[in-house]
UniProtKB/TrEMBL annotation:
<protein>
    <recommendedName>
        <fullName>Peptidoglycan binding-like domain-containing protein</fullName>
    </recommendedName>
</protein>
<feature type="coiled-coil region">
    <location>
        <begin position="446"/>
        <end position="473"/>
    </location>
</feature>
<keyword id="KW-0732">Signal</keyword>
<feature type="signal peptide">
    <location>
        <begin position="1"/>
        <end position="28"/>
    </location>
</feature>
<keyword id="KW-0175">Coiled coil</keyword>
<dbReference type="InterPro" id="IPR036366">
    <property type="entry name" value="PGBDSf"/>
</dbReference>
């Protein structure tokens, strides 16, 4: 029994999308004026049929155009369009067809209709849609009632004048036609969408269309990737971010392991990650897909062959391409800690950069028992030289990094938590898994000094208050708070601040368990920070839990202020 294809392959103009859809049967018509089934999800009027007219026959292609649109064009415009299609058909005959079939193999030829030519149908599509491929057309109507029973590709009429884009679109779509023949028809298997799309996207590079980087499809894809770099490689949601990540990964894969990774895996009876692993083994490589993915994630952070031969891109277009990691800042004085909880999916990159702090650094990582994280990390020294290490995790997915005198020798620590468990059966909605890391910095000497200074300043301030109270004859209420609410973030290092004074007055009223020193100075020092930490952990369910935190940070942000202001209202 022939399996019906239900997956969608979409190609957008900037985030190029393709789709295998379901429509209604085509009406009978002569060769020059016919009705074709189209995908209603992409047709501008959401129609399931389009009446089209044949305007050009080439060596390997028929060009059809939506009839009502074509007849609305003046003769001069029609001639211009036909001239453009002459250029496109010549490019297909001389470059696209011979190059891509030599790399990936042939499409079904002659196909379901017994004709060696492929039909290109231009019709009006919704804004942003750049074309699509319907695998249903490769079956006879007895099997797929909505089939056009032809090898067909669909391109947007809005781009009929843009030859540079049409070359990229046509090449991409033609790879899908080849893939159907090589996988579905000849080997009876259906390729995972992410890998199907990866081959089609890489076609532009094979053909040299990305050679000039400015304005290229690759440039647009890198921009998409940088907007959401943690998008999963294998989860296919049919958006521009999916196309971004597959481009960035596939250029790395082919850079280091050759085009055979894509071509030989297409000829394999296996699919998805298993097909790539089989090709790696066949070609004598020691790495598997998981190791390559890990090296790629590191390369995106350092992109320097001097750090390691696999920690860089070889393509000139990507020689300087790097990720912007999520930044985590530790205070520059005293002891401090930071706890971050995040979620990830299989085959998604995560880059967390830690800077700041003085003293010894400890990082504790905790994943979910039952899954297997890989956590490479990069230490950047004072000379901005990177070294790569790997965090050892126990059976509970826990591990620890310790770096002596972190601030004296280093500028940054970057951890790259990766989940690489699932290898097949990917969908458009993969599970998310949490991980947590806690960074602690110990600077006991600095903290003791800061506490002493804060204590002396507090004594001076207290004496000033007592003198002022005696002079006025109106002793100040020691339990009063000088403000009704706290606005704005408060943090260690602030001095001479009335807001900090109000915070300290409030913390003092919380008792010795929160603020045993009870100093009110207007200076946010180490003792005040510790008092804030105790307060946050006392009301953890209100302050920390909503943020996914387990330990206090000492930073007075929105959630901490909200709790303080709530309590101030009832005082």
């Amino acid at each position: 029994m022939i399996k019906e294809n239900t997956f969608k392959i979409i190609f957008f103009t900037i985030a190029i999308f393709f789709l295998a859809g379901f429509t209604v049967p085509a009406k009978a018509a002569n060769i020059s004026d016919v009705f074709f089934n189209v995908d209603a999800n992409f047709d501008v009027g959401e129609s399931s049929q389009v009446q089209a007219v044949l305007i050009k026959t080439a060596a390997n292609l028929y060009f059809y155009v939506q009839k009502d649109w074509w007849e609305a064009q003046v003769p001069a415009k029609q001639s211009e369009i036909i001239n453009n299609l002459d250029v496109l058909s010549s490019e297909f005959d001389k470059k696209i067809y011979p190059t891509l079939t030599s790399v990936f193999g042939s499409e079904w030829n002659p196909g379901v209709d017994g004709d060696s030519k492929t039909i290109i149908l231009f019709h009006a599509m919704k804004e942003g849609v750049g074309g699509y491929f319907r695998s249903n057309d490769e079956y006879i109507k007895l099997q797929m009632p909505n089939s056009n029973e032809k090898e067909m590709l669909y391109l947007p009429i809005s781009q009929i004048d843009n030859i540079s884009k049409l070359k990229v679109f046509l090449a991409h779509e033609f790879v899908h036609l080849i893939t159907f023949n090589q996988k579905d028809r000849l080997r009876g298997v259906q390729e995972d969408v992410w890998l199907n799309e990866s081959r089609a996207e890489y076609a532009a590079t094979i053909l040299g269309y990305n050679g000039l980087y400015e304005g290229s499809n690759l440039q647009a894809r890198l921009k998409n990737f940088l907007e959401r770099p943690s998008d999963s490689l294998v989860e296919w949601k049919e958006n521009k971010y999916d196309y971004g990540v597959i481009n960035v990964f596939m250029h790395y894969l082919v850079d280091h392991y050759g085009i055979n990774m894509l071509s030989d895996s297409l000829q394999s009876p296996l699919t998805s990650i298993a097909s790539i692993n089989a090709v790696l083994a066949k070609n004598g490589y020691q790495e598997d897909f998981s190791q390559i993915f890990t090296n790629w994630a590191i390369a995106l952070m350092v992109n320097d062959c001097k750090v390691g031969p696999k920690y860089c891109y070889l393509s000139s277009n990507l020689a300087n391409f790097k990720i912007n990691p999520t930044l985590n800042f530790l205070p520059l004085s005293g002891s401090s800690s930071l706890s971050v909880t995040n979620v990830t999916k299989n085959w998604a990159g995560n880059w967390q950069k830690i800077i700041g702090g003085k003293g010894d650094l400890t990082l504790e990582f905790s994943g979910v028992k039952g899954v297997h994280f890989q956590v490479p990390y990069v230490v950047v020294d004072k000379e901005n030289v990177s070294t790569v290490h790997f965090l050892a995790l126990d059976e509970n997915q826990k591990g620890k990094i310790f770096i002596k005198d972190f601030d004296k020798n280093n500028n940054a620590l970057i951890i790259i938590p990766l989940l690489e468990d699932k290898t097949s059966g990917f969908s458009n909605s993969e599970f998310t898994y949490p991980y947590t890391f806690k960074v602690s910095i110990s600077g006991q000497v600095q903290e003791d000094e800061a506490a002493l200074i804060e204590s002396l300043l507090a004594q001076i301030a207290s004496l000033k208050q007592q003198i002022a109270a005696l002079q006025s004859g109106e002793p100040k209420n020691p339990l009063a708070v000088s403000c009704s609410s706290i606005t704005g973030n408060l943090y260690i290092g602030m001095t001479g601040s009335q807001k900090v004074t109000c915070l300290q007055e409030f913390l003092k009223l919380q008792g010795g368990a929160v603020y045993p020193e009870g100093l009110v100075t207007g200076n946010f020092g180490a003792l005040t920070r510790l008092a804030v930490v105790r307060f946050q952990e006392k009301y953890a369910s209100d302050i920390l839990a909503p943020l996914g935190l387990s330990w206090g940070t000492g930073f007075v942000g929105s959630s901490t202020r909200q709790k303080i202001n709530q309590l101030l209202q009832v005082m």
